[in-house]
Amino acid sequence: MKRIGSPNHRAHPECICVACSDDRTERRCKNPNACAAAVRTRLLQILPKWRPSAPDPPVAPPNPAVEGTTVFRPPPEISNLTDGFRIFTKDRGDDPPPPPGALPVSADESPVRAVIGGHIELSGTLDAKAAAGVWYAPNDPRNAGSLIPEGTAPKQGCGEIVAALLAAQAAPPNASLFIAGKRSTVTAAMNTHLQTWEDNRWIGVPNPAPLQALAACLRSRHGTTSFTVVQDAADRPACKAARTLAREAASEGVAATLNLTIPASAKIQGAKLSKMTQKNAYRMIRSLRETPPRRTTTTTVSLVQDVAKTRTGHAPTPKIIWESIRHKDISRQIKPWLWKSLHGAHRIGDYWSHIPGFEDRATCSHCNVTESLQHILLECTRPGQAQIWALAHKLWRRKTGEPLPTPSMGMVLGSALTTFEDESKQKLPSGLNRLYRIVVSESAFLIWKLRNECVITRNGAAPSIFEVHNRWVSLVNERLKIDQFMANHRSDQNKILVLPEVVLQTWSRTLLDEATLPKNWLREPRVLVGIGTLSSHPVSPPPRGRNRHS
């Protein structure tokens, strides 16, 4: 193939160059020129990464000898057949060309130094907004702040990513670019995690669009791009100025033009087959199939959002709601119950209406209305529901001197989201929020268990007021004992399970004869809540069997 570009070769069947002469003599080829042209045509039809004659990608320059500065090094090009196979791609397309690599900076291209900053407000709510700020120098016309557009989920660190993208897009492609920031978010993303993210099709990565656009933009630059984490006190005012630009953009709603488009030739599609795991393959298959939202789930999540917005003024995102049911203060057996409650997946009410022969199970046998979770927890007149909430009110009043907020479905399912503030909007000690989570979730789950025992194992016989009272007191005392145990023990990794001061804050002003207890009562064996049991009636043990919590 190389003979075609040689000055000694002629495009003629009788060419007398060395290569053609050898082919006639050794291989008895009648037309070496035609054979060489055919080979060249076949090779040019092969994609660059499989072509043996393709040039090697340029090597990035070494890191500069500047402490705290890291040069952007894109992941290396494919060097073997194994790494060349990718799956979960949308279309075949063409392979991206090799990165341009660093070229000498021309005399008229001076280095560019940009300081980036980010700002986020109301994180985790539907009203959350984030902004980016890029600062070059005092009174520099390039100084700008931009509100991150809708469609990019506001999350910690996204402001710095977008700010770096704005700086890279504005810098001349041949100039050296130095990006400085207070955090190492951009450095870690581009120099540490980029290879793994691209190998795994960005699965599980929040805000992938700005990161993908930033990686493509940095790859297309000829000048070197360096990242610096600001540590010098002299550079801190510049970081503060960048964050101020971002904060002003968020408050004023100023949005710059953010180009997230990636050229088709620069897109890296799919996931690398050689790095695939069963877990990631399953996640990618699920991500390719769009599951329509369930009507009941959407309604229930909206209910929780409405209650939270009424209390705080801002509705949490669905992601925050789903994460809240896994809160460490929620008992292990209650977490799946909350998950099914948010989905409306309990086998009650309308679930039985469509099963021939079981339609009567859809109706509450005590109230003669269609049964629902709201009816069971808040409306049913069967003994147990109202009494348990009255006990929760009593314990809460003992703790705070105020009544427990009126129970509702949104309050119960979003109990892990509730935070209490004083009149000046300052958050109260964490122990108060923790007690609320424990009391509300445990009380609601006990109502659910008592209903199931009544309907399934007792043939409709309701528990007595003595049993309901003592079951609730025993349940709360058990949680208190668990807290005492966790405050005095460590996990297998030698981590404190619950901080002792948190347990003391949680149960203060709720204990029996608290004035006689030592200041640190965590090792006292006979600590009980201040609501005693009723001894006028024996307590029957909870039913045994696999359906005791169903």
Structure characterization notes:
It is a single chain. With 550 residues, the protein is α/β, with parallel strands linked by helices. The protein has 3 domains: 2-45, no CATH class; 82-275, 2-Layer Sandwich (Nucleotidyltransferase, domain 5), CATH 3.30.420.10; 306-516, no CATH class. Helices cover 39% and strands 7% of the residues. It has 17 helices and 8 strands. It has helices spanning 18-26, 32-44, 158-170, 185-199, 208-220, 236-252, 278-288, 295-312, 318-324, 334-343, 350-353, 373-379, 385-400, 409-413, 430-457, 465-487, 500-507, and strands spanning 69-71, 86-87, 112-121, 129-135, 144-147, 177-181, 225-229, 271-272. The strands form 2 sheets. Strands 1-7-6-3-4-5 form a 6-stranded mixed sheet, with helices on both faces. A two-stranded antiparallel ribbon has the order 2-8. Helix 3 packs parallel to helix 5 (208-220), helix 13 packs antiparallel against helix 15 and helix 15 (430-457) crosses helix 16. The protein is elongated, with a radius of gyration of 34 Å. It starts with 17 loop residues before the first helix and ends in a 43-residue tail after the last helix. It comes from Mycena rosella (Pink bonnet). Residues 54-64 have a biased composition (Pro residues). One of its GO terms (molecular function) is nucleic acid binding. Residues 52-77 are annotated as: Disordered. This is Reverse transcriptase zinc-binding domain-containing protein.
